[in-house]
Amino acid sequence: MYATADVELFDLGRLTHTTDQRSVGELLFDVDRHARLLLIDVTEDDVAQLLHAWPALVSAAVNLWRALPRLAGPVAVTTTPIERVAQISDSISRRLTTSSWPPPTAPDPRLGDMAHTLDQAASLVERFADHVPLSDAGREDLDAARARIMHSLYVAAHAVTVSLVQHGRTRHDQASANRRPLARPADQTPYAVAPTTEWVRRMAAAEAAAAGFAAHGRLPALLNGEQRVPPADTSRLTRALARWDVQAHRGLVCPGWRDNMVLITRTQALIAATAMVLVDAAAAGGKLDPSPRLGPALGRAGAAWSDLGSRWDDLTPVNVRPSPQLLVAAGEIRAATRELIHDGATMACQDTIASGPATTRA
After folding, report:
1. Which of 63, 150, 195, 272 has the smallest set of CB atoms within 10 Å of its CB?
2. What are 121-148's pLDDT values in tens digits?
3. What gap in Å lies between CA 23 and CA 266, rounded to an integer?
4. What pLDDT digit, counting tens, does each position of 97-107 carry?
5. Residue 269's closest CA among 292, 301, 225?
6. What are the helix (H) ranges across 106-260?
7. Neighbours of 220 (CB within 10 A)
């Protein structure tokens, strides 16, 4: 039955060469996470790089969307949202080649990282998706994957719009201070002043197209359909921590160590926070004797790492990227900790965590 598929599965020319062990769902979760971080950190100074990086991000999302198995039913139901975003992105790409603003510049590396992760997920889907029979649970998982893709694009588009508006506001305030007020668009879009006006409108259209897929409160329900295999033990976390320990130390002693500091400190803060959650759950479940010192010590360690990460973030230029090996190790830490303390799209309750393998070992 699977003879043809087996030949393709063991075709060395089609193997996906990567040291990243994360699943498609975990990769998409990371893309969504990076989009949220971008929205928090974006500034007006990023606007040109963000606009130049947007078409590549959408292209990667479209490639992944088209690689996903197509469900039975009207084609428009599963293709219209992403095709609309793609059309807007194509128009942005063409306009960037003819417009005097924004000036040519390197694409934003944060959107570049998101595009790379989407490409990695697409490679996994193209490699294995056709060889797995699609069950009802698989259909729900597909809906969750599409929701992740569209939500990531929605948040990223909003981040670009925020940067544009901030840039326009600065221009508006400077012109007002010089008593040379700038013309406002007829639709009274806040701070959409030349030369940002057309870009605000284009990105607003992209944002609206992406938001439509999971509108009316459907997003949580779609994400809860994501399928995960419960971890049988903590071996993945153990391997992830060992790998992280090696890569973090390498990142600290290499010539470009400053580029790695934000990721190292934030990942250490995540490890401390995860330890706090596991200790609290184990104590609540009667699997660990309550300690007046352990919990506060973990809390102080996590706060210290988080504060240090914030300081390094203030000192690090936005276009600085950590080493690729460190990025992969940090991504595996996030995936390994999440499967132990999360339930679906939300944090698991203490009873669920206490019944898991992590607190059993505690």
Report:
1. 195
2. 999 998 876 666 678 888 899 999 999 9
3. 22
4. 999 999 999 99
5. 301
6. 109-128, 136-177, 197-211, 219-223, 235-253
7. 12
